[in-house]
Amino acid sequence: MSERKSQSDGKKEEESFKVTYIFPNGDTYEGECYRTSEGVVVRRGVGTQKTACGITYSGQWSEDKMNGAGALIHPSGAKYEGQFMDNMYHGKGTYYFPDGTKYIGIFNENRLEGEGEFTDADGLEWTGVFHNRAAPGLKLKLNM
Q: Could you tell me the pTM of the whole model?
């Protein structure tokens, strides 16, 4: 492993390297990692993890967790594209439900939270403020 000094603060910064790893449970990871000062290899940078049960995440990693922009695809057809924080949907994103409906808006620790837009199975777009599973006062968005 090579180390380099950061020009801004004089601290040593670890070099990233690429790996392909198969976990004991059958999951796979292909992407960037680094070795901590304790010698532990953790995911950081860009990479793709595929679980044995068919879930795929492609995107940014930090401190061995999904952090930053990415996409998580489930075998059911559900898909999330957007921001992650500590392995959770957090920030702006789009969630595509298996039935063809979708939500575009803000997420807070995996919950719909704040201004958003929901497209129902008939293609009608609804806007409003979402709070987990509730969205009182949704308004139909008219496309004229």
A: 0.84
